[in-house]
Amino acid sequence: MPIIAPSMLSADFLKLGEDVEMVNNSAADWFHLDVMDGRFVPNISYGLPVIAAMKKKAKKPLDVHLMILEPEKYFEAFAKAGADILTVHYEVSPHLHRNLQAIKALGMKAGVAINPHTPVSVLADVLCDIDVVLIMSVNPGFGGQKFIDHTIHKIHELKTMIHDRGAATLIEVDGGVTLENAPTIIKAGADALVAGNTVFASANPTATIESLKKITK
Ligand code: DX5
Ligand code: ZN
After folding, report:
1. The domain containing residue 23 runs over which residues?
2. d(C-alpha 68, C-alpha 74), whole Å
3. Number of domains observed in the structure of the chain
4. Ligand at shortest distance from the CA of 198
5. Hey, whose CA ends up nearest to atom 10 of ligand 1?
6. 194, 199, 202, 209: which to mutate for ligand 1, most atoms within 8 A of CB?
7. How far apart are CA 33 and CA 19, in angstroms?
């Protein structure tokens, strides 16, 4: 069964506590939390105090996706706020290996996100150090965008790379995931699905999470 990570970017911020409870009581596995700085991506979302507040209620791991420049400046702060998985973008990490070690030294799992134009091959020499690769299937910055179909090839290719190295790295896919395309994404080799709009814009978010969870290869 896939790991399901609802993106709280699509939650109702006036009822954030209720939406955290909904995820707690659903079949979801992780909370996906999108942090944007208005510089690496053309949008600003929420940050440390909001994550620390969610941590108080959340009964599942916090999967924090940093879409910010110089993410290494904030690793310690996100560890303190309660991140369990901390993901940095490949595109902002000239010293990716160092970043991965620093995240793990703070007791978190280390993730690397790649934009749609970034080939999976750039991760070849650090793959064994990565706990989760977050393949962006939209250009990061906004929820509710359309899935870029070419992503499917990248999932296949990354799965082969992981298999060839005997690595334990998980593949997470983020952006435009729907009940319709999720089976294809899982078949290609994804272990975890992020879903924002699909979950929170549905009439019954709990049932939608359940439906995503039940998708089999
Ligand atoms: C986009 C974010 C995503 C986003 C996904 O920059 O990284 O996590 O919230 O939202 P949907 O599932 O609506 O595309
Ligand atoms: Zn994300």
Report:
1. 3-213
2. 10
3. 1
4. 1
5. 143
6. 194
7. 13
CATH number for the domain that contains residue 169: 3.20.20.70
CB of 172 within 6 A of ligand 1: the answer is no
Q: Can you give the three-state secondary structure of the chain, one letter per residue? A: CCEEEEEHHHCCHHHHHHHHHHHHCCCCCCEEEEEEECCCCCCECCCHHHHHHHHHHCCCCEEEEEECCCHHHHHHHHHHHCCCEEEEEHHHCCCHHHHHHHHHHCCCEEEEEECCCCCHHHHCCCHHHCCEEEEECCCCCCCCCCCCCCHHHHHHHHHHHHHHHCCCCEEEEECCCCCCCHHHHHHHCCCEEEECHHHHCCCCHHHHHHHHHCCCC
Sequential pLDDT tens for the chain (217 residues): 999 999 999 999 999 999 999 999 999 999 999 999 999 999 999 999 999 999 999 999 999 999 999 999 999 999 999 999 999 999 999 999 999 999 999 999 999 999 999 999 999 999 999 999 999 999 999 999 999 999 999 999 999 999 999 999 999 999 999 999 999 999 999 999 999 999 999 999 999 999 999 998 7
Amino acid found at 114 = I
**Among all residues, which ones are annotated catalytic?**
34, 174
What's the 141 CA to ligand 1 centre distance in angstroms?
8
